[in-house]
Design goal:
Structural class: alpha+beta
Strand order of the largest sheet: 1-2-7-4-3
Oligomer: single chain
Number of helices: 13
Radius of gyration: 23 Å
Number of strands: 11
Length: about 425
């Protein structure tokens, strides 16, 4: 036993010395909790709610600090000023994608979400250009068509208690089908259902804890890259919008006064017969504020997808070596109590001025910011506005339990937040 203890102590010392040598040789990292040999800081982090752990550490070490996952350091950015300084002012240097082993094994460095370097820039540019060529007007028409189909499916529930998860997942996925294949799909199509199931499963897997090695990849634009890129568009454009819509309806159930004000705006601007369109949004400041507040409150991806620095960079008197993973806390800006008083409370007033006009906020970053801002941001914004207004134009939302028993608190699931499960009735207006 004594020999084993000595061996463990020797190995621990060697690992600590190696860690110290690595840090002093390549960079000067921001302060942070002392890592354990092999384990790093993993025991000091709640892997089920990493965002909360990072927020607690920021109170001790400030807005820029370092945590270790095994022997690999990750620099954490917490708060608007640190995020702005890194992702916007030094956007190019912080535009790398950090380690994400599951995605790297599946995507092999291709696509938009998890690629790096030349291949990422080419793919992102191609994707943006293709979406622009398709035309935002055509995309709006696709969403409007899908909104009508969604409303009909909700009508078929016959005002019975239902869980909206499935239908709210089908609608945005079908919109992507319309964009990619120029044709929407029926919600009963077996291939479509299989596709939807796989994306839901992948989202759950990718929300689990991560960190490993990345690989080197060639940069030719191939059919494989195109396939992965389309898969990225489906994955990013389906689960995220679906989850936000699901949380939005739950929040509207909990706050019928908010729902009533939206429906009052719908009656005044759109009426009960014309389909909502994006031009309506500028005349509906309260509805616009609610959509923003749903995204702020739900805080879908609290720590964002990991970034990485693309070169050795001096940042706030620290020297961060090329390839270092950077974690950006979106929670820290979406729940900034200086920008949003009582940030834990759902309040559309966070995005309204004293006159009731819509008020923008620099801290509104649900799609991230900088070079890696979500490619589908404009698509998601359109879907959230058109789907929610189309539903509230045709239905009153009725809870199946007492309002006081409805819990809207986001549930942490690794790297994502999801709303609690619930049922409701869609009562035709």
């Amino acid at each position: 036993i004594d020999g084993a203890v000595v061996l463990v102590l020797c190995l621990s010392c060697l690992l600590l010395l190696s860690l110290g040598k690595q840090n002093s040789g390549r960079g000067k990292f921001p302060p942070g909790p002392t890592p354990l040999p092999i384990l790093g800081n993993i025991l000091q982090l709640d892997v089920k709610d990493i965002s909360k752990s990072l927020s607690n550490l920021s109170k001790v070490y400030g807005p820029v600090f370092t945590v270790y996952f095994d022997l690999k350091p990750a620099v954490v950015l917490h708060g608007y000023e640190a995020m702005k300084e890194a992702l916007i002012a030094a956007g190019e240097e912080f535009s790398g994608r950090g380690h994400f082993p599951m995605a790297e094994r599946v995507n092999k460095g291709h696509g938009i979400l998890f690629s790096n370097g030349k291949i990422w820039k080419e793919t992102r540019c191609f994707s943006i250009m293709t979406l622009q060529n398709f035309g935002m007007g055509s995309i709006e028409e696709s969403i409007q068509e899908e909104a009508l189909c969604l409303v009909e499916e909700l009508r078929r529930t016959n005002a019975s208690p239902c869980d909206p998860t499935f239908l709210l997942g089908c609608a945005p996925c079908s919109v992507i089908c319309s964009i990619i294949f120029h044709n929407r799909v029926d919600y009963t199509n077996q291939n479509f259902l299989t596709l939807l199931e796989k994306f839901n499963e992948n989202f759950r897997i990718l929300s689990s804890p991560w960190m490993q090695e990345k690989h080197n990849h060639q940069s030719e634009y191939t059919l494989e890259i195109l396939t992965v890129t389309i898969a990225d568009l489906f994955a990013a454009g389906t689960e995220t919008v679906s989850t936000t819509l699901r949380h939005g309806l739950l929040l509207l159930l909990k706050h019928p006064d908010v729902t009533a004000k939206i429906q009052e705006e719908i009656d005044h601007v759109i009426g009960r017969h014309r389909s909502p369109c994006m031009q309506d949004k500028s005349h509906m400041p309260y509805t616009d504020a609610v959509v923003h507040e749903v995204q702020r409150y739900s805080d879908l991806v609290p720590t964002n997808l990991p970034h990485a620095v693309t070169c050795d960079i001096k940042f706030r008197n620290y020297l961060i070596p090329k390839g270092t993973t950077v974690l950006t806390s979106l929670t820290s800006v979406l729940r900034d109590d200086q920008e949003f008083p009582n940030p834990e409370v759902f309040d559309p007033g966070h995005f309204l001025d004293e006159s009731g006009n819509f008020k923008k906020s620099d801290c509104f970053m649900p799609f991230s910011t900088g070079k890696r801002v979500c490619v589908g941001e404009s698509l998601a914004r359109m879907e959230l506005f058109l789907f929610l207004t189309s539903i509230l134009q045709k239905f009153t939302l009725e809870p199946v339990i007492d309002l006081k028993d409805i819990d809207t608190t986001p549930i942490s699931r690794g790297l994502s937040h999801v709303p609690p499960s619930y049922q409701l009735r869609f009562i035709p207006v």
